[in-house]
């Protein structure tokens, strides 16, 4: 009887967690009012349940970059210790276990307002909601035209393209997992732009020149070091380009990703961070 009682107690304790997990599983495309306890950074919040929500359609500066503190403070003031309207995306969860949603407070979209105030840029991964795309791109055009926030303070946002992710150290042996190292590039301009003639290289000048790849505003392309079938048409979904290299491009101990314009001028550059696989660095 004692063992049965212990089992019943365990089931009683786990029941709310199981119910919450089931609710989340069914949240794709749903809307819920949920309490927020913490702003992790400008584009990630923590719910009272302990689950984290990544703000859909946008990207804010990383810690230490221009605009990071302002973005985090804006998100904190809008959400912490409040119940907010969470509109989950068609895909409710990303590969890091975070839930994906647009956050509304008093009828206003936090995601959209972060972009409008210049503390975030548009960042769309398919499937894309057409109405949200139109709203957020319009907010970016407004912020960039008015030179608000990052569009005024950080020279990395003055071009057409911006490097948002740099994963220089692939899991395991890089030579056997070339596609585990990659760079993600986003179009931060006000219209569709072509990557043709741009060059992605390391700090030693080794890299590749891009063919014709048209990238709409706010859309990204994942550039992988290894082989595969490139998908470079935006209307077909997420764009990806395989460099088809025989050896790793990026040094595991640290490197620099440089994007150069067709004339050789620097468009953007980013230094690698502590590797997730070599010392516990956090991937965003």
Describe, in plain words, how this protein is organized in 3D.
This protein is an alpha+beta fold and 284 residues long. The chain has two domains: 30-153, OB fold (Dihydrolipoamide Acetyltransferase, E2P) (Beta Barrel); 159-271, Immunoglobulin-like (Sandwich). Helix content is 23%, strand content 31%. It has helices spanning 2-25, 68-79, 110-116, 130-146, 150-153, and strands spanning 31-41, 44-47, 52-55, 58-59, 82-93, 99-105, 108-109, 121-122, 161-167, 182-187, 193-194, 199-201, 207-209, 214-215, 220-224, 239-242, 256-260, 266-271. A five-stranded mixed beta barrel has the order 1-2-3-6-5. Helix 3 packs parallel to helix 4 (130-146). It starts with a helix and ends in a 13-residue tail after the last strand. Residues 5-24 and 276-284 have low confidence and may be disordered.
What does this entry show, briefly?
Helices cover 23% and strands 31% of the residues.
Overview features:
284 residues, alpha+beta, OB fold (Dihydrolipoamide Acetyltransferase, E2P), Immunoglobulin-like, 2 domains, 5-stranded mixed β-barrel, 4-stranded mixed β-sheet, 5 helices, 23% helix, globular, disordered C terminus
